[in-house]
Design brief:
Blueprint: H1 6-22, H2 28-52, H3 56-69, H4 71-76, H5 91-111, H6 129-145, E1 147-149, E2 162-164, H7 171-180, H8 186-205, H9 210-222, H10 230-252, H11 254-259, H12 264-268, H13 279-295, H14 301-313, H15 344-372, H16 377-388, H17 390-393, H18 399-427
Antiparallel strand pairs: 1-2
Helix pairs in contact: 1-2, 1-5, 2-3, 2-5, 5-13, 5-15, 6-7, 6-8, 7-8, 9-16, 15-16, 16-18
């Protein structure tokens, strides 16, 4: 049976419903093992389908999701607590989080339709010196002011005083505009790559890995996928993953490294550990914590409705002026600790129940499919931001799906409207002033 056959995912959904019904008997350990295995299988199918379509961007997206799909394996098969954070989350909460993630992956696979293409059409617009110049200036200012304070070299990651602006990642929007409106001359290329390089170095000095990954995905989409084969890209992804993981170890132990006393055996040993020391584990724990809050009455139906409308309000206003419940990652952390973040499907389950999970899967499936076969420049622009920001919206806060990506698309639409209007006036309207034809 071909993996593109929708019947596979219908069958997996029925398996999911059976697991959900049997979970009423509270056999969470054995059911969690089955759910964790199914989650790995469905994510593997998505990666294989993306590989069959020869689409490196889709492969990256599903590999990233797969990093979080592996956490239930550690929890249920190796019996490791997903985080160092102290809370009363139990195996039942981890099971619920696994089931929601599995439901999302099943419907995502169902709604995705990939077309095999050797070269995806570019949306490169064409030269515009004004748009390029303004975008370059804004990108430079964001790079300069996005993060300030002490770097990790001055005290270690998480132990320094750093001011991180919410606008820092908007650099990606303007660097994308620079690429789209570039004339391709050497000067513009030098400025473009210099800004990218400085942005990456600066964020790494402040301990930021996500921004580096986001810019890397953007460059692959816009530049390297036309120049390198799929095999070369896969090797680069493996190398990049190793380097990013190594950087994660180094930034967490930078104080020992600077003094020359490095306990590599402690850092690299996975024996006799009762918990995971990973970003993915922290995010999975933060997601499970939401089920703990629901179970203990801190997120009742009214609270969840308020959370949804507060979350929606974040599209229009800063997070500092919305109720605390609008940011579930930090809600009630004074009572039950959390490092922040949370998986997007879990957020939408809290907001809208199972319907929210399915709607999110439908939306993401359509966007992933459009990456496989772009239909117009506006959808393609949103799709680029969507896939570039997947490390942020999928694992930390889904507001970036609407606020960041939609703001970027709105700016692009305004630019194109003004350019088309000026072009029309300069080529048609002005030629017929006084004739009544304008």
């Amino acid at each position: 049976m071909k993996i593109e056959n929708k019947q596979i995912y219908v069958f997996l959904f029925f398996l999911w419903m059976i697991l959900k019904l049997v979970s009423l008997l509270e056999f969470y350990d054995i059911l969690g093992k089955i759910a964790a295995l199914l989650l790995l299988v469905i994510n593997g199918l998505l990666i294989y389908r993306a590989y069959s379509a020869r689409n490196i961007i889709l492969i990256i997206g599903f590999i990233f999701m797969g990093m979080y799909a592996t956490i239930p394996y550690y929890v249920f098969y190796l019996h490791m607590y997903p985080s160092l954070r102290a809370a009363d989350c139990s195996v039942s909460h981890f099971f619920e989080a696994t089931m929601i993630l599995l439901l999302f992956q099943i419907f995502l696979a169902y709604f995705c339709n990939f077309q095999r293409q050797t070269k995806i059409p570019s949306i490169k617009i064409g030269a515009d010196r004004i748009v390029w110049g303004v975008s370059a200036v804004v990108a430079f200012l964001i790079m300069l002011l996005g993060k300030r304070g002490q770097t990790i070299l001055e005290g270690g990651y998480g132990a320094t005083e750093t001011q991180n602006s919410n606008l820092n990642e908007y650099f990606i929007i303007f660097i994308l505009l620079m690429y789209l409106y570039s004339s391709g001359i050497r000067f513009q290329k030098i400025i473009f790559y210099s800004l990218v390089f400085l942005y990456i170095i600066k964020n790494l000095l402040y301990g930021g890995r996500i921004e580096t990954v986001e810019v890397g995905i953007l460059l692959i989409y816009c530049v390297t996928r036309y120049k390198f084969s799929l095999r070369v890209h896969m090797l680069l992804i493996v190398a990049a993953f190793c380097l990013i993981s190594l950087f994660g170890l180094l930034r967490s132990n930078i104080d020992f490294i600077l003094t020359g006393h490095i306990d590599w055996e402690k850092i690299l040993s996975f024996e006799n550990r009762d918990y995971l020391e990973s970003n993915e584990g922290d995010v999975f724990y933060a997601s499970s914590r939401m089920f703990f809050l629901i179970e203990n009455g801190y997120l009742d139906v009214i609270d969840r409705i308020n959370a949804f409308f507060s979350f929606t309000g974040l599209i229009f206003v800063p997070s500092s002026i919305v109720p605390d419940i609008g940011v579930l990652a930090s809600y009630k952390t004074n009572i039950y600790n959390s490092g922040g973040g949370g998986l997007a499907p879990i957020y939408y389950f809290v907001f809208l129940g199972y319907l929210g999970v399915i709607l999110l899967a439908f939306f993401c499936g359509k966007i992933f499919s459009s990456i496989s076969c772009p239909k117009n420049k506006y959808l393609s622009f949103y799709s680029i931001l969507f896939i570039s920001m997947i490390p942020r919206w999928f694992a930390y806060y889904p507001i970036h799906l609407t606020k960041f990506c939609a703001y970027g698309l709105l700016l692009f639409c305004v630019i194109e409207f003004l350019r088309n209007k000026c072009f029309y006036e300069n080529t048609a309207c002005y030629k017929h002033i006084g004739t009544g034809r304008c």
